[in-house]
TrEMBL record:
InterPro entries xrefs: Peptide_deformylase, Peptide_deformylase_sf
Catalytic reaction equation(s): N-terminal N-formyl-L-methionyl-[peptide] + H2O = N-terminal L-methionyl-[peptide] + formate
Secretion signal, residue range per the UniProt entry: none
Protein name as it appears in the record: Peptide deformylase
Example GO molecular function: metal ion binding
NCBIfam families in UniProt: pept_deformyl (TIGR00079), PRK00150.1-3 (NF001159)
UniProt-annotated location(s): Plastid, Chloroplast
Summary of the function given for this chain in its UniProt record: Removes the formyl group from the N-terminal Met of newly synthesized proteins.
EC number(s) recorded for this UniProt protein: 3.5.1.88
Family listed: Belongs to the polypeptide deformylase family.
Electron transport as UniProt keyword: no
């Protein structure tokens, strides 16, 4: 897989470059489909760990028992989403990007309303994916549409998603993030993932994602664990965007915590 392939999860992809992104995504999807049979069980080795955001990544890795306990609790108490419209995109280093995100237990009209509002702001900001904590709503939910335009592509809403398998094969894509305006950099991720999730009515389902869709999903999934894309950059890549990160911290002083 070429390192030059560009993908821009939850990012402001300019209209002019959208066709290029989609065609590249389609190519990436085709190229990686052969790696489907190489999926393996999630384990400690599956996550490409960098040293930053360690607490969030460690928490994500605990998975299993803690996640089940939390899920059982949520089902018992029926965690219902709470939000205020209109939504707005929270920029790094806003605290909502690092907060814990609750498992959703109530599947009602409010949840549907949140999904629609998330798509609306995602399209308005020219993104292809958006996770609820990015709009200050700390629940485990994401939306995406690879085409990045209403009426085109496939709108996907995933509630309480889990990754059950990662592919062994990984690739390097240039990512952006709506919470990090104007920052684009290479991030390594598995090329394919198997996912379990619920839809807006609470129905559970499984799916296998490849190529650009797998890339977008994993970027958004990280948001649900409070992991941000620069947590996964190499030191060299991080160094190349350090100035822009510092500028964001200066531009959004109300957002705690400061720094990485
Ligand atoms: Zn993002």
């Amino acid at each position: 897989m070429s390192a030059s392939i560009v993908s821009r999860p939850c990012l402001a992809a300019a209209a002019a470059s959208r066709a290029r992104l989609v065609s590249r995504a389609a190519r990436a999807s085709t190229a990686s489909s052969s790696s489907n049979d190489k999926l393996h069980a999630v384990g400690a080795r599956a996550l490409p760990i960098q040293v930053r955001g360690l607490a969030q990544i460690a928490r994500a890795k605990k998975g299993g028992f803690l996640a089940e306990m939390e899920e059982a609790k949520a089902e018992e108490s029926g965690a219902k989403v709470e939000f205020t419209l209109p939504l707005s995109i929270q920029k790094y280093p806003h605290v909502s990007l690092r907060n814990d995100n609750k498992i959703i237990g109530v599947f009602d009209a409010e949840l549907e309303k949140l999904a629609q509002a998330m798509f609306k702001i995602m399209y308005e900001t020219e993104g292809v994916g958006l996770a609820a904590p990015q709009v200050g709503v700390n629940y485990r939910m994401m939306v995406y549409n690879e085409a990045g335009e209403p009426g085109r592509g496939k709108e996907v809403v995933l509630v309480n998603p889990k990754i059950v398998k990662f592919s062994k094969t990984k690739d390097l894509f240039e990512e952006g993030c709506l919470s990090f305006p104007k920052i684009y950099a290479d991030v390594e991720r598995p090329t394919s993932v198997q996912v379990e999730a619920q839809n807006l009515r609470g129905k559970k389902f499984k799916m296998t994602l490849d190529g650009f869709e797998a890339r977008v999903f994993q970027h958004e999934y990280d948001h649900l664990d409070g992991v941000l894309f620069h947590d996964r950059m190499t030191d060299e890549v991080l160094g190349s965007v350090r100035g822009e990160l510092d500028a964001l911290i200066d531009a959004h002083p109300a957002g705690e915590p400061k720094g990485v």
